[in-house]
Amino acid sequence: MFDSLFRKKPLSKILLDAEQGVDDGHGTHGLKKILGVKDLTSMGIAAVVGAGIFSTIGTAAFNGGPGISLLFIITAVTCGFSALCYAEFASRVPIAGSAYTYAYVSFGELVAWIIGWALILEYAIGNIVVAISWSGYFNNLLEGFGLHLPAWLTTDPTTAKHAFLLSQEAVAAGTPLTESLLYAQNAWNTAPVIFGKHIFVNLPAFIIVVLISILTYIGIRESKKMTNFLVVFKLLVIILVILVGFFFVDPGNWSPFLPNGFEGVLRGVSAVFYAYIGFDAISTTAEECKNPQRDLPRGMIYSLVICTVLYILIAFVLTGMVPFTQLKVADPLAFVFDTVGQKWIGYIVSVSAVIATTSVLLVFQLGQPRIWMSMSRDGLMPKAFAKIHPKYQTPWFSTIITGCIVAIPSLFMESGLMTDLTSIGTLFAFVLVSAGVLTLPHVTNIKGTAPAGKFKLPYINGKFIVPVLYIVFIYFSRDRVLSAVQNIGNEGLQEILFLIFIILGAILSVLTFIRNYSIIPILGVLFCAYLLIEIPALSWLYFFCWMGVGLVIYFSYGYWKSKLATNKS
């Protein structure tokens, strides 16, 4: 049974499918190949620059101060290692499926399923958060024009109830109600009541997901045009924010640079990493690229570099315009310009935020169906998920299911926990993709003619560098290591995860010394693994539950229906 759990999909078969097209079982062989490197770079930027930079960056800056710019650099380096590994895979495995397909080639079926299931957190579940954020920006924009939707149509039940209870506590304490508490009280009192329960739904979030799903259903060409338009607009706004913002920077706000130490900076890991999620999503469009082996690597790397430069500049502008202690707000970019009396910029930022989150929704709604399509082709999911529309040439059934999974929960779900879960799912995929490069089979051609890939990960021998870096890390973390070991019986999940990371680092350092592994994939594994352990323990518990559900589905269906198991591949 062990061998069957880790059966690998032959790389030669994947390359042959990429060359000839894959029959979905309904007479349709492939997707439209219309994407070039500019389109892929645009899609990468569209996926990355979204809710993170417009909202979660404020909380990160509140915790880390001006030093949050260091975290953007660290996260960019971490994502950079992973991006290079993704680029290697995308060049040598030019077929839809992203990290799921890469894991199938490198580690086998069980790990591939786990990654595919984790990617649902990044794409489908993560898009619920994006839809809720979009709703907030959209409502703010409407109010700026004097339009007001009923409050019970713009929020989820949990958030509404919590806000109402806070208003009641303020009334009981005799404290004057703030504008937001008055709004919460009015929302509760005016909401319709059915069977004794106050009804709250986030209708704008639901509607935008439905509209985006229709667009992705119709076709990749239409989605490409919309993405390119949205990206150009939001990049112009971000550049405007940076240029105008620097005129209002007070250098005194950058001191102290690390007001809460480096520990404070690390509290923003989830928020900052969430701002980077998405560049990998373009690898799901491999079968719609004109030249995936050349253009996918370029698109991922170009988009990551552009976004990193913009993020670092925005971090300096935000923390320079106002003291970092004021930045724990839902809309930090608009807030800082309101603070310095430039409300007109705030309105433009609000418009850009709506557009930015729309583009994120679009790219992720494109990505998830293509992963399910790949899993269905391999027999791990029902055949319907691989159906290609005869006219639009899109995975139509998967697109509809993705739309339902995102749209319906966005009506009533609270977004808080979802951000951390999305980050775990993404980092988990990054770890395995980085490690997978080390085990990727060497295939030089397809039927002796076509090259297997046009991007090669630079080889830098990590024999001595990785062990030295590990020793340096242990030295600077010696107090935490010692405390975790001495109190291992009483430690919480967070410190147990830290000890697991220490063991992983030791193992990889030894293996790198013995086998002369390249430093890039090894550091990709270690950097992503470290960011993983800094995510709150509660989110990990939910993640383990999510993985448990996924394994039940795999062993009750995928394990038995796999094409590798039934010799149909």
From TrEMBL:
Localization of this protein: Membrane
Q: Which Pfam families does the entry link to? A: AA_permease_2, AA_permease_C
- Membrane-spanning regions, if any? 40-62, 68-89, 110-134, 199-220, 227-249, 261-279, 300-324, 344-367, 395-412, 424-445, 457-476, 496-514, 519-535, 541-560
**Where do the Cationic amino acid transporter C-terminal domain residues begin and end?**
519-562
Q: Which GO terms describe its molecular function?
A: amino acid transmembrane transporter activity
Keyword hit for Transmembrane = yes
Report the membrane topology from the UniProt record.
Multi-pass membrane protein
Presence of keyword Transport: yes
Q: Could you list this entry's UniProt keywords, alphabetically sorted.
A: Membrane, Transmembrane, Transmembrane helix, Transport
Q: Which InterPro entries match?
A: AA/rel_permease1 (IPR002293), CAT_C (IPR029485)
A single GO CC term for this protein reads:
membrane
- Name the principal localization, coarsely classed: membrane
The protein's name = Amino acid transporter
Which species is the source of this protein? Answer: Ohtaekwangia koreensis
